[in-house]
Each structure stands twice: as C-alpha cells, then as structure tokens.
Amino acid sequence: MSQTALIVYQSHAGDRNNLGKLGALSIVQELSRRLNQPFTTIGKIEPFIGANWDVELSHASVAFQKLSEHFDAIFSQGQRSLSALSRCATSIATLPILMKYHPNVCVIWFDAHADLNAPSTSESGYLGGMALLASLGMWSSGFGDGLKFSNIILVGQRDMDACEVDVINAHRIQLIHPNTQNLYAELKQAIANRPVYVHLDCDVLNPYVVPTEYTSEGGLSLDELKLASMAIAEHEIIGLEIAEFQYAWSEGEEAFSPAPLIDALQPIIERLHPKSTSC
C-alpha cells in the first residue's frame, strides 16, 4: 500500500469569495485529525478577485505551478493524493500531472456542472467552468493536458450549457445522471475495473446539504454519495480531491462541520488510508 499525501490549496482559483478556501482548510484539518497525519499547504489566503477567467488564471498561476510541482513529486514517488482544493479550477493544475503518471486512470467527475466550457464558449467567463476541458487539451491553460475523453465518467451533472452537451455527445463521454435508479451498479460498470481518481464538487449534492457557492435541484443525497463511494472503493484509487465546500452558508455565519461529507466519502478514504476512522 503506497503512502497517501494530504494537501490543501489556499490561493486564488477563480474565487468569488474566500469561503471555499476556508472550507478546504476545515476539510483538511478534519482529515488530518482522523488520519493522525500532517498536511501540506499550497499557497496562502488572499482577498478574492472575482474577475474574468484570464485575470483569475494569471493571479493563480504561481500557486497553480506550486500545486502542479507538489503533485509531480507525490506521483513520482508512487504516492496517492487526498486533497482539499477549494475550487474546481485547481484541477487545471492537478489533472495533467495525474495523467503524466497514470495515463489510463479513470477520472470520476462528481459535479452539478460539466466544466466543459472553453474561453471561446463560456458566457460567464468563470474559470472553474473550464477546468475539465483544459485537461482534455481543448484550450491551453499553460499547465498541460493529457486527459482522454474515454477516461472520464461524469456523475450528477444537471446544469449544463448546450456547448457542453455537444462535447459530451460528440466524444461519447460517459454520464451517470443523478436520478439514476442504480447508481452503485452503473458506476461499477462505467469504471470497468480501471484505477480511479475522484474529483468531488460539493454542488453535486442536493441544495443545502452542505454549503457551496452554486446550488442546483435534483442532486445526490449524502447517502447516495456514500453508495457511490462504496462502488468506487472496490477499485484501486489513485487520489481524491474535494472542491467547492464552503466554510459557512455565507460570510460571517457560523462554521459548518465537514464531518458528514467526510463520513459519506469514508469508503474512498479508507481505501486510500486503511487506518482512517469516522469518529
């Protein structure tokens, strides 16, 4: 069993508030307590910008490079990763390194959105909505690519632009809808015994289950996320990254515990770190 590195990302990532950074910190602190393991911090919290994708990417570039280099060091040593990465845009830095060392890994993308926009198609200019397409090499982020369409499993997507649906259909990306009657079986069939890397955007869940910036009706419950985690845990797991968990429902409100979310992910965490507990 290879060692699992624990990481938190705290710098710019297309944020519109600082709640995602604080949320990532609360997640990694809870994981560190449960696993009795120290964590590595990449970047530092600075005031959010809330700008267009290109400005955000420019401000994030130094920290993204450090995150990329850290993942390179982890995977080059045969380690696995368990990370709290604030916003989905951070995958621009993590996925290309993952593909460098694990080109045949199956990337499971839990998200209410597909994140398959490009700068030329995005109406909002939001960097996070372009994260997955960058790693597929459909636009140049400056941080590489290498991900294959055939290696993606989308789970829970229900709020997508027409151009994203076109990408899914054109490249036959596997999509498991959140209202499926047999999530466990469908996910196992889609994984097809491949090694797995998991990206979790917390807005894949039903609104108001955990604090997150975006909400979309018709998502997964924590019980369904636990069921999906059980299916995933039957396979080799290379890493798990958790994004878009906000520290509180809004600025100035009481902190929200990440414990229920981590409990739902426990089967994956136990596979990555067999001595972990849910207490």
Give a short summary of the structure:
The chain is of the alpha/beta class and 279 residues long.
Break the fold down into its secondary structure elements and pairings.
Elements: E1 4-9, H1 19-35, E2 40-42, H2 53-76, E3 80-84, H3 91-101, E4 106-110, H4 131-135, E5 152-155, H5 162-170, E6 174-176, H6 183-191, E7 196-201, H7 222-232, E8 237-243, H8 259-264, H9 266-272
Helix pairs in contact: 2-3, 6-7
Average pLDDT level: 96
Largest sheet at a glance? 8 strands, parallel
CATH superfamily: Ureohydrolase domain
Helix and strand string, N-terminal first? EHEHEHEHEHEHEHEHH
**Overall spatial form:** globular
CATH architecture: 3-Layer(aba) Sandwich
Describe the structure.
With 279 residues, the protein is of the alpha/beta class. The protein has one domain (4-272): 3-Layer(aba) Sandwich (Arginase, Chain A), CATH 3.40.800.10. It has nine helices and eight strands. Strands 2-1-3-8-7-4-5-6 form an eight-stranded parallel beta sheet, sandwiched between helices. The longest helix is centred in the N-terminal third of the chain and has 24 residues, at 53-76. The protein is globular and about 45 Å long.
